[in-house]
# Entry
Amino acid sequence: MWDQVKQALNQSTTKFLTSLAHLLPGIVALIVALLISFVLAWFLAIMVRRLLTSLHFDEWLNRWGFASVAEWSPMNSPTRLVSRTVACAVILAGFLIGIAAFDAESTSLLVRSVFAYIPNIVGATLVLSIGGVIASFLARSVLIGAVNLNLQYARLLSMGVKWLVVVLSVAMALEHLKIAPGIVDLAFGILFGGIVLTLVLAVGLNSKELVTKSLERDGKEASAENIEEPFRHV
Amino acid sequence: MEVDSSPQQPQAKAAQIDSADFVVGVFAGLDRNGITTLCEGLRTLPGSPRIVVLQSDPSGAAAAPNLQAANENSSVSLVPWSVLGLDPTGAPLQSISAACQSLFAATEKMTARACCLIASEMESAAPEWVCRLLQPLLESDCDLVVPYYAPRKLQGLLNSSIVYPLTRCLYGKRIHNPLGPDMGVSRRLAQKLLGTNRNANGGSSQTHPLASLAPVAACENMQICQVHVGARVYPPTDWMNMSSLVAQVLGSIFLELERSAACWQRTRGSVSVPARGEYVYPSEETGTLDVNRMVETFQLGVRDLQEIWGLVLPPATLFELRKLSRLTPEKVHMPDELWARIVYDFALAHRLRTINRDHLLRSMTPLYLAWVVSYARDLETAGAATVEQRIERLALAYETAKPYLISRWRWPDRFNP
# Structure
């Protein structure tokens, strides 16, 4: 009986050691891939940081109206954020390549599905970036136009326009990423409709006084003498 | 002299005229009588030169009656004028710029000695004022003849606040209406402008001929003279499009400023430009002044446009503006020195493209309105004769602040007070 137990133990140990022996090359390959990706990530991060610093990336981002990016960047520097993001991406890619060295079928399926998802991430990032730029530009245009028209709710109008475009961009980005599409569609519809309704009410309620004053003024002008405005600019 | 006014196709009509001594482009909306009196006035010019009058309103030309010949050695030909690239719905400055280009091209084609653009209506409506613009081109070697409109308290405010003092300070010539729009231009100057425009055509920084006339003439040391022409009829203010107007005018001026930086950085002080004709004293104006709306716009601008102005104006200027906005509307008064520095800061930001140029120039509107309020209050109780003195004070403030502009222009990152 003891011989049978010993034999069973020997067999399972042998199986374990054989499986470990099969895994070892994969583990070594993973460690090597990670080491290489760390070195590459460090090198790329330095290059990206130098390039963005020479282009005054932080100042340009501030001028384009993305001052809030600096607030949640490490050391208030969007340049560092970008360089660290690049480094993390390279390390992640190295990790994925490393685990592809394991069992051929399941790990390579995982790696393939991750890499197949990357174009969606790129597309979503592009949509978000362009949406952000357009939102900032439109918000500024509306703000300046509303101030010049002497509208007291200029800032509200500008923020409303900005958030409309941002919400639209986020919904489009989430659609690209194929994340809960049904819920995103519904949430977007409710949010977008809510923002539009808020803006319409704000403009409409504030304009009530303006329209009343305008009607009163028209009435006074019809009965009183015409007072011609004396200013001429060009 | 026969005035040839048969209603032919514009191209066919213009093609028959291969040369002329002068080309007059009438861009103002003159009616039949106006055109007739204009042609009669041109007839009286000494030497009876051959003049081609291009009229942008074809209906006037078609309806004009034949005029009797007075001198068989001269003729005034009336030609319908279709301005290439003119957009009827476009901005006024763009339209006049397109008219200038077309006029210069016609002058070149007809190898005329000079040309003249008429784009304004005058209060007196006498035709002699057009002849006064042509006379210096005829009698002397004048390259640019600019009108000197009778100054009015609250008219031509963009010119008084920015265009005139900036042109005077930068180019050293006291040209009272550098943007015209009525101008007499010699062929030499027109060729120079056509050449400059062709060079700039490939890039995105095409300057407007109207904004370039005075700077090019001053930088090339050409002869400039002014002519007293009386009081101009200014179009009424369109408050809905105020910022578009400001952006248009300042955009072309700042572009020209950038183009001629090498010239104005060498200029020091300013000299008077010879003026012809009798000075027309400004008449007293009546009218109520309602500046509350402009003060409100300024205060709203200080409240909501801080983040935009913060990219353009130094902290000291922003502080002064905040102080001004906290005053009661009756006490809002923008000092000339502050205003001059603001204009220079915006010119620099325009060059550096700190933000989108259209946004930059439109965001200047509340500041401009604050200056208008101060200016209107200064002249409210003063007589019409003090208008010139008031503008002179402003122009001196610009000249005094010129070193500030030069320092910031040369070292925008290092010199930021």
Q: What stands out?
A: The interface with chain B takes residues 62-63, 67, 137, 140-141, 143-145, 147-150, 152, 154-155, 227-234 of chain A (CB under 8 Å). The domain at 117-218 of chain A is CATH 1.10.287 (Helix Hairpins). The two ends of chain A are 112 Å apart (CA to CA). Chain A has a mean pLDDT of 82.
